[in-house]
Amino acid sequence: MAWYEIFIVSVGLSLDVFTYALYKGAMLSRLDKKQILKMILLFTGWQSGAMLLGCLLYTSPSPRD
């Protein structure tokens, strides 16, 4: 995949997640700040870990080299 194809897919997935978050947020009657902070930290950690793993896999030498 070329870089621009990866970029287009990532933008589409980001918009999909944003739409779902808006949908779920619209159904909340009351906001619990501790619960929201936990979700933010979990999501941020997951995304950072996935990005780090992808970077490590991309930069690691292949066994055939």
Instruction: Bin the strand percentage.
Output: under 5%
What would you report as the Rg, rounded to the nearest angstrom?
17 Å
The pLDDT mean sits at 86
The count of helical stretches stands at: 2
The proportion of residues forming helix, as a percent range, comes to over 70%
Number of strands: 0
Shape, per Cα inertia axes: elongated
Sheet/helix structural class? mainly alpha
Cα(first) to Cα(last) distance is 21 Å
Q: Which stretches are low in confidence, meaning pLDDT under 50 for 5 or more residues running?
A: none
Order of helices and strands: HH
Detailed description of the structure:
The protein has 65 residues and is mostly helical. 78% of the residues lie in helices and 0% in strands. It contains two helices and no strands. It has helices at residues 3-26, 33-59. The chain starts with a helix and ends in a 6-residue tail after the last helix. The model has no long low-confidence stretch (mean pLDDT 86).
For this entry, give a set of tags:
65 residues, mainly alpha, 2 helices, 78% helix, 0% strand
In short:
Helix content is 78%, strand content 0%. By secondary structure, it is mainly alpha-helical.
Helix-strand blueprint:
Blueprint: H1 3-26, H2 33-59
